[in-house]
Write a structure and sequence with these properties.
The structure is a single chain. By secondary structure, this protein is mostly beta strands. Helices cover 10% and strands 44% of the residues. The strands form 6 sheets. It has a 7-stranded mixed sheet with strand order 8-7-11-5-4-13-14, with no helix packed on it. A 4-stranded antiparallel sheet has the order 17-18-23-20, with no helix packed on it. A 3-stranded mixed sheet has the order 1-2-3. It starts with 5 loop residues before the first strand and ends in a 13-residue tail after the last strand. The relative contact order is 0.09.
Length: 331
């Protein structure tokens, strides 16, 4: 046997080792974590031992390497956490980031959506009216109420407790803490007004006049709910929704997908699931809509719709060069 060159012996998984007996012998194995294990048989010892003794040494090294290679991988490092001595300082360190818990729209990271209202209810008669709405707030925030300077809400309560109402912007608002709350209040008038203002953040509303539900309330694009006229007598389908989607690919780096969702709605205001608007592998960048919409991580969109024609614009991108554009099988 000749010992002239330096060569390594590799162990791959649990397969048999390939023995090459030359100048210096390195036995290399890898554990499940990818760590290298090397065993050297001294050159001087190799020259003094007969070939069958060298074979026994290498077989022993092979078995040892296999045992080590089967050791379990070390546990994954724990997620980064705030050290215990600094935990008490968390609120102080983020005191100037009041909206840190609020989601932001894709198109404007400086804008924060700090609450999400559910369906609002409004009951009207000749002496006055009452409203109620459930709101989920992501942190302490102001919620605009139905009405305005002409129709100021009174007897406003949050979860049954009296709450002060102040003017913010162009209308009344009440402050609520983080969590889900029920807001209710009343109006006083000598006769039913022509209309009442509805905040832009509210997308679904149930109207009852003199104890009778109004199936098709008139809710114009300026945000006014008309109380003395309705669309019940007009020839329109109830709870009808037509959806048209137009998409255009814009070449470049990244590759852009411009999508417009055209909604034609009749019937009462409600929340509709519009399905998946993004093909597989695309990332949402911006959403522009005149009505409240939400898009989840899988690209599924839902909207709080009311009678009218609405266009929702969504832009998505990707950096690779796909051969095909298609939706997921579960879409």
């Amino acid at each position: 046997m000749h010992f002239n060159e330096l060569e390594r012996i590799h162990f791959i998984g649990n397969s048999n080792a390939l023995f090459t007996l030359r100048a210096g012998v390195f036995v290399i194995a890898r554990t499940a974590a990818g760590r290298a294990i090397e065993c050297r048989v001294a050159l001087a010892l190799m020259k003094k031992l007969p070939p069958h003794s060298l074979l026994i040494i290498l077989l022993f090294a092979c078995c040892t390497a296999r045992v080590v290679a089967q050791e379990p991988a070390p546990p994954a490092p724990p997620e980064r956490e705030i050290p215990e001595p600094l935990a008490a300082w968390q609120d102080w360190a983020t005191w100037d980031d009041a909206h840190r818990k609020c989601p932001t729209p894709f198109s404007d990271p400086q804008k924060h959506l700090c609450f999400w209202p559910s369906r609002a209810g409004l009951q009207v008669d000749k002496a006055g009216g009452r409203f109620d709405i459930a709101v989920t707030a992501f942190h302490e925030t102001w919620v605009p109420l139905l009405g305005g300077r002409e129709r100021w809400p009174v007897e406003v309560r949050v979860d049954g407790a009296p709450a002060p109402v102040v003017e913010r912007g162009d209308g009344p608002a009440v402050k609520i803490a983080a969590g889900t709350h029920r807001i209710e209040g009343a109006y006083r008038w000598s006769e039913v007004p022509q209309r009442i203002a509805v905040p832009e953040s509210i997308g679904i509303l149930v109207l009852v006049i003199d104890g009778k539900p109004v199936e098709l309330p008139v809710w114009d694009a300026d945000g006014f709910l008309w109380l003395k006229r309705d669309a019940a007598s007009s020839e329109t389908d109830k709870d009808f929704l037509a959806v048209k989607i137009y998409s255009a690919l814009e070449d470049g780096i990244p590759l852009w997908l411009r999508t417009e969702v055209e909604l034609t709605v009749s019937g009462k205001s409600r929340e509709e699931e519009l399905g998946t608007i993004l093909p597989e592998g695309w990332k949402l960048a911006t959403v522009e809509s005149p009505i409240p919409v939400a898009v989840d991580d899988t690209g599924r969109m839902k909207a709080q719709v009311r009678a009218g024609k609405w266009t929702v614009k969504a832009d998505a991108f990707r950096f690779d060069n796909p051969k095909t554009v298609g939706y997921a099988a579960t879409a």
